[in-house]
Amino acid sequence: MKIILLSGGSGKRLWPLSNNARSKQFLKVLQDEEGSSESMIQRIYRQIRKSLPDAEVLVTSSEAQGDSVRRQLGDQVENVLEPSRRDTYPAILLSGAYLLDRGQMDEGEVIAVLPVDPYVEQDYFEKLHVMEQALCESGADLCLLGISPTYPSEKYGYITGGTAADKPYGHVKSYVEKPDLQTAQRLVGGGAYWNGGVFVLRASFVRKLIEKEIGEVSFERLYAQYASLPYTSFDYEVTEKSTSAVFVTYDGEWNDLGTWNTLTAKMREPDGGFVIRGENCHNTHIINELEIPVVALGLRDTVVVASADGILVSDKHASSYMKPYVEQIHNRPMYEKRQWGEYRVLDFAQCRHGKENSLTKHLYVEAGRSISYQKHDLRDEVWTIIDGEGLFLLDGEVREVRRGDVLYIAKGRRHAMATREGVDFIEVQMGTELVEEDIERFPWDWGSLLRPEEGPESDT
Amino acid sequence: MKIILLSGGSGKRLWPLSNNARSKQFLKVLQDEEGSSESMIQRIYRQIRKSLPDAEVLVTSSEAQGDSVRRQLGDQVENVLEPSRRDTYPAILLSGAYLLDRGQMDEGEVIAVLPVDPYVEQDYFEKLHVMEQALCESGADLCLLGISPTYPSEKYGYITGGTAADKPYGHVKSYVEKPDLQTAQRLVGGGAYWNGGVFVLRASFVRKLIEKEIGEVSFERLYAQYASLPYTSFDYEVTEKSTSAVFVTYDGEWNDLGTWNTLTAKMREPDGGFVIRGENCHNTHIINELEIPVVALGLRDTVVVASADGILVSDKHASSYMKPYVEQIHNRPMYEKRQWGEYRVLDFAQCRHGKENSLTKHLYVEAGRSISYQKHDLRDEVWTIIDGEGLFLLDGEVREVRRGDVLYIAKGRRHAMATREGVDFIEVQMGTELVEEDIERFPWDWGSLLRPEEGPESDT
Asked: Among A59, A157, A310, B107, which has the minimal tally of Cβ within 10 Å of its Cβ?
């Protein structure tokens, strides 16, 4: 079995901890069995490994999420980067094409597609074996996972159809995606199941879907034509139209953790970061990623979250409705983890006269990493090294730099930084347009320069 | 009449907008008659000027408040800076010594002492005329202002004694400072008044108090011996013991605005700064001085205040009890207004190895101002000019600097910055102890360099 993990969107309902580069599935707010903090994607991956130790796992994500995927799951997974954000139908086709075209997948194998964000028990992953078996026995194209509904939601798809007593699966009689409230009530009353967004598919079925769109199974062509694929969900495009689907049911815990209300219920500690709270707070969670303190007094059923991007103060229930308010904010991300390290925006200033701007950042490059060799056309930069040592590359010349050194990088000059031990610097950008897009990258091989220096061997 | 305005302490109950350098009386959260924003001290001063246009006004404050006093009241008031924070008794003696010794005050004149923070009507200041008249007619040493109590508070002093129908004042029969609840209930039931903290005193009486402490009326000696004066309030030391006091009553609005609960009730706008609120917030005030947004949803009776020093989220009533929580915070102030301009701390970082630290600030020097000529023994500094032009002084040599210039100031080197048009720079400090105390100041006269350059005269 091959597994496709669909890494979803930014999760605006978990603002200000989630932004385009830092989606909710990467927030390390949960705890693993040993009590160490882990993210949703790390939890899901750990659970998959437990039930399916040998399955190949492919993570499909946006380009902006690529760094986070590698940082949190390492090299043990493959990562397909969508060229643009579409919906689950194009994403599943792209991932399928990768497996079929690049991975030389056996046509007899099955592909399991899983969303990355549900909070579930281990039994959920054991169901993947049952779903594979159901597909083989029934000869169907796809197998769904039916979840026992807890209320007549208008957000989910509904599966109807009974399961025979002697079989671990049933045939889908009808499928209704996102019904109105009245229909949802009737469906729940009639014993329907929610569609949990898990699909087990025959490789040959995925092949047919891809061929329908672009005529052949080519990852390269699908990647190039990605923006022209239908902007729609797999449920609307495939599940709802299918006449050959079976389903398996799961009745354990199933929680989407997509809002602060649901996520805080799974957090072991009510506070994170520099928080001072009075004794008179009840059912209140406070997460503070800033260096300044949060003082909380007399709060009830409240969530307070402070990050470099902003501050949320919300009644827990009301936090589910934050999306339209957060969509009014168009600030640039103020904090990002990257593959080479991380940065935080400290200051942005517009000049009093003219159109010039300044932006100040604190950057940290991790030991053994480097920032890409780059130039900017619209800004000068001043770097002041405040911690560690690095290798500074300017127009092809490398020199060692350390705490106290000040580097002036005029617009148009090619530059990079690498470090064996880790380096921090304050960057002051000055120019008219201070955007991440003003960058041109060039190849550069640091080679052996980046490996730690070897000391004399010790006899003891 | 001479007026002493006692500028009180930092007002921990209005954290995070108040800190040692930025006390509550300087917060511009009120509105004047034209709708412009004003602070408590500006409001009091405006009201004094209306009732007593010619009275000389002296503001007594801590050294840290000196910049704020000059910034908000300008040169129209004199400012006595206490060498250390004591209580109202030493503060009144020091101010009195200044008036008697330096100001050559007439012994027949009276001195009115007023706290800086009550929110009152204009009639409160008209009462100062009545109090002066009461002192003359009665021959008493001091005249108090009695406030009609609204509840049996344990925080105030109580004045008992009736007023005759034909006189605008009464003789104080007894004075009880901060009674227990039972006594307070009895006093309120018996028609006692709160002591409003306003005193009108004979100059000769103040002279006697000073002579009792140091033997002579010398501002210089009192200033030098300030730390050895009794650390006590004027109410305990003088009012409670006095056998010759009269009082005048005031029954208009009298509100101390010392907590977020009382202050927000006087704010015309519920929000300040970058705030996005859902429609479902009730009786909620949000003040945001940060550049990142605050999103508020579903809050009731809540106050949210975000500043560079920290974030308060509190039930309005509970905010009155914040003092012990805020006293746990020992961070340095992150934002300060100074006489030369202002600065904001952007970043603080400890080196991963060793004891070195780094601190990054954004400083703004106002047009026509300069930073004192100074040197630091424990840190190097890198200044990157990001806006405007300035005059940079290094070890006695002045040169013009502008946006884009980078200045390296090694420890031990004397430096200063002045500007005709205003200048912004990012300062990176690097050293072992990054404290405001690591500074030695030197005299320097910028002379005509700081005046705006004169252009050719125009005929039109």
From this structure: B107
Identity of the residue in A304, A329, A406 whose CB atom sits nearest the CB atom of B313: A304
Helix, strand, coil percent content, chain A, rounded in steps of 5: 25, 35, 40
B386/A contact by beta carbon, under 8 A = yes
Distance in angstroms (rounded) separating the CA atoms of residues A294 and A290: 9
pLDDT tens digits, A350-407: 999 888 999 999 999 999 999 999 999 999 999 999 999 999 999 999 999 999 999 9
Are B314 and A308 inside 8 Å of each other by CB?
no
Q: Which residue in this structure is represented by tokens 């009152």?
A: B120
What does the block give as tokens for B9? 């302490």
Say yes or no to pLDDT of A302 above 70.
yes
Instruction: Using only the alpha carbons of chain B, give its radius of gyration.
Output: 25
- What size, in residues, is chain A? 460
Contacts with B96 (C-beta within 8 Å, 6 or more apart), sequence order: B4, B111, B201, B203, B206, B207, B209, B210
Task: Select from A301, A428, A429, A434 the residue whose CB has the most chain B CBs within 10 Å, as the one to mutate to test that interface.
Answer: A428
| Paired tokens of B122 | 């204009």
A456 prior amide bond cis, ω within 30: no
Could you say which residues from 307 to 346 on chain B have a Cβ atom under 8 Å away from some Cβ of chain A?
308-315, 317-319, 321-322, 325-326, 328-329, 331, 334, 344, 346
| DSSP per position, B377-407 | SSEEEEEEEEEEEEEEEETTEEEEEETT-EE
Is residue B431 within a helix (H) or strand (E), and if so which, with residue range?
Answer: strand B423-431
- In sequence order, the 6+-apart residues with CB closer than 8 A to the CB of B241 are none
DSSP, residue by residue, A22-45:
B-GGG---EE-TTS-EE-HHHHHH
Instruction: Judge: A386–B362 Cβ closer than 8 Å, yes or no.
Output: no
CB A210 within 8 A of CB A100: yes
Kindly state whether A402 is in contact with chain B, defined as any CB-CB distance less than 8 angstroms: no
Q: What distance lies between CA B27 and its chain's CA centroid?
A: 9
Question: What does A318-371 look like in DSSP terms, one character per residue?
Answer: GGGG-HHHHTT--PPPSEEEETTEEEEEEEEEE-SSSS-EEEEEEEEEPTTEEE
Nearest to A145 by CA among A126, A131, A165: A131
Q: Which of A358, A361, A381, A383 to mutate to test the interface with B (most CBs of B within 10 A)?
A: A358
- Long-range Cβ pairs for the range A349-356 (8 Å, 24+): A349/B362, A349/B386, A349/B387, A349/B424, A351/B386, A351/B387, A351/B388, A351/B403, A352/B387, A352/B388, A352/B422, A355/A432, A356/A430, A356/A431, A356/A432, A356/B387, A356/B403
**Substitution target from A386, A407, A411, A423 for chain B, most B beta carbons within 10 A:** A386
Residue A104 contacts residue A59 (beta carbons within 8 Å) = no
pLDDT at B134: 95
Q: What is the pLDDT of residues A158-198, one digit of tens each?
A: 999 987 778 899 999 999 999 999 999 999 999 999 999 99
Most confidently modeled range among A73-87, A255-269, B21-35, B205-219: B205-219
A422 touches chain B (CB under 8 A): yes
- Chain A contact present for B289, CB below 8 A: no
3-state secondary structure of A91: helix
- Which of chain A's residues have a Cβ under 8 Å away from the Cβ of B386? 349, 351, 358, 428, 430
Q: How many beta carbons lie within 10 A of that of residue A339, not counting itself? A: 13
Model-level pTM? 0.79
- Chain A partners within 8 Å of B291 (Cβ): 348
Q: Which helix (H) or strand (E) holds A394?
A: strand A379-394
